[in-house]
């Protein structure tokens, strides 16, 4: 007989109202910790998707379960910066159901679009051609 274990908030996957966000928990072991792999603070890192290199830099990566691949998010100076990068990508991949390291931290606003002078000139020419005076 097959049994299915229910995980989550038991609302059928729908997120309604002011439910609490799930907080990510790093696993108790980050990869193979035998042989002193990773940096000195790696075992005590509490952030999901974040680990420390031997030389002290922090890295972040996230798994995309649909594509079954790991997505490299980059190298960072602190574990907090790496955790914020993880959270940003988790929001993009999983939307409001994302499990975040820092659920209370609001994501930064998207950057304002910038255009080179050449692009602005092309836009101006296109506008003049489309709407002649």
Summarize the structure in words.
The protein has 133 residues and is an alpha+beta fold. It is 23% helix and 14% strand. The protein is built from two helices and three strands; from the N terminus they run E-E-E-H-H. Strands 1-2-3 form a three-stranded antiparallel beta sheet, with helices on one face. A hairpin with a 5-residue loop joins strand 1 (50-52) and strand 2 (58-64). The radius of gyration is 21 Å and the shape is elongated.
Helix-strand makeup class: alpha+beta
Main-sheet strand order equals 1-2-3
Compressed to H and E, one letter per element, the order equals EEEHH
The rough form would be described as elongated
| Percentage of residues in helical conformation | 10-25%
The number of distinct β-strands equals: 3
Give the key terms.
disordered N terminus, alpha+beta, 23% helix, 133 residues, three-stranded antiparallel beta sheet
Brief account:
Helices cover 23% and strands 14% of the residues. It contains 2 helices and 3 strands; from the N terminus they run βββαα.
Reconstruct the topology from this structure.
Blueprint lengths: L49 E3 L5 E7 L4 E8 L2 H16 L22 H14 L3
Antiparallel strand pairs: 1-2, 2-3
